[in-house]
Amino acid sequence: MNIKAFSLLLFCVGFLACAQEDTTIETLENDYSHEVIIDNIDIAWGMDFFKDGSFLVTSKDGQLFYHKNGNTSKVADVPNVYNRGQGGLLDVKIHPEYPDKPWIYLTHASTQVDEEGGHTALVRAEFKDGQVSNMKTLYKAGPNTTKGQHFGSRLEFDKDGYLFMSIGERGAREVNPQDITRDGGKIYRFNEDGSIPEDNPFYMLENSKKAIYSYGHRNPQGMEIHPETGEIWVHEHGPRGGDEINIIKKGANYGWPIISYGINYNGTEFTDNTTMAGMEQPFYYWVPSIAPSGMTFVTSDKYPELKGNLLAGSLKFQYLEHVAFNDNGVQKREKLLDKIGRIRSVEQSPDGFIYVGVEGIGVVKMLPKS
Amino acid sequence: MKIYVIPLLLIFGFFINTEEDNTSIIYTPITQEKDLQQSIKDGNAIYSDFCIRCHLAKGEGIDDIYPPLADSNWLSEKRKESIKSVKYGLNGEIEVNGKTYNNNMSSMGLTDREVADVMNYIMNNFGNEKRELEQVTLDEVSNISED
Q1: Which of A38, A135, B12, B104 is close enough to A125 for a disulfide, judged by CB 3.0 to 4.6 Å?
Q2: What is the pTM of this model?
């Protein structure tokens, strides 16, 4: 065997090894233990806490549950839920001024309008004394398709009271994410009543979807306000490799699918470019993909070793990822609750505990170490 | 030639009319199974949309997490369970090709037709073709229930 062939062989072996091996993440010697809080929701897709510590949790197949004082009760069957593939009832968000503004917000894949298939919708309802009423659709993306992919979706309020929502590109990367006249592959911004702020970046453009705040996204399933800077942070699924953390800027293009750190699922490439003028670079990108879902910043003193850092669920590798970062980027990654199951959602409760939605289980509470 | 067609049409017309008048006749719908090659082709599209993220492009799966569909003993030995898992989801421990997996796959919300197509795609790819498995039909999928 000549040297060329040998080095090619070495290169190939090295590449194959890198393809699935995640070399920059660490495993804990003493992992956290957990307590199961809800044990009968197959996919607890989204959660949000009231100030009294009670919380709402969505089940992907369309039900909304309310957990208070150890009891879990169903409070709504959300209508028109398109429970197919990645679609279903998705996120839930409580108005930050609750109970003065007694509103809760939901996103779901929706069958609404007379086309076959579904697309993502934003819904608002009133929540009082454990009762849901006045449910109303504020926004419905279109057109519907029967694709099972990339509905998003997460919700978050910023400090000025605007509501942000993510919608994935519905498995149509050549059509949706770079086109601001079409829904999908976008972060949207609304007023609390669902109306569209007139200073949205593309509001004045003819034919544009006026709710768009940023574009060029693939499928964002994590979104959280940074507790100090007030920025909206998002993570999104890449293809094979190239999941990203992005900090959302008004009117910015995040590049999908023109630039990406990933390749197709079948191993072929779809772009040579990882950077391009006029397109944002991610704050961090994952290769290999972890399939991130759910995101929270830890502000609590209950876990001093995590404080100030980011947590993201991994659907693919079935752990909670601890991402330690500073202004220079990500400094350290660790697996928490390793092998617990596909992690769908993560939230910090008002009393400082980390709650995690795990597929096949329900909701668990991660117990501090002391 | 043309002239002969007219009386023929009249005769047929007569029969059709009499049948319409007779309301006691009960029709059984004829189920025609999709051509296997077409089913495999349609199943490929379903696979790329719903399955590929976890089971990967060649059905190889991921060690200890997502069981392989490639050259899988489950497809031949647990045919009914295989179809059922695609139709309704699967939770808990299974053994595939001698290795144990314990995970949760939720129901994908596919139609019975789509379940049959994606099963045919998997059963005729990834090294499963040598097992020469019988075509999964719409009837077969429809007759599988959750319990």
Answers
A1: A135
A2: 0.88
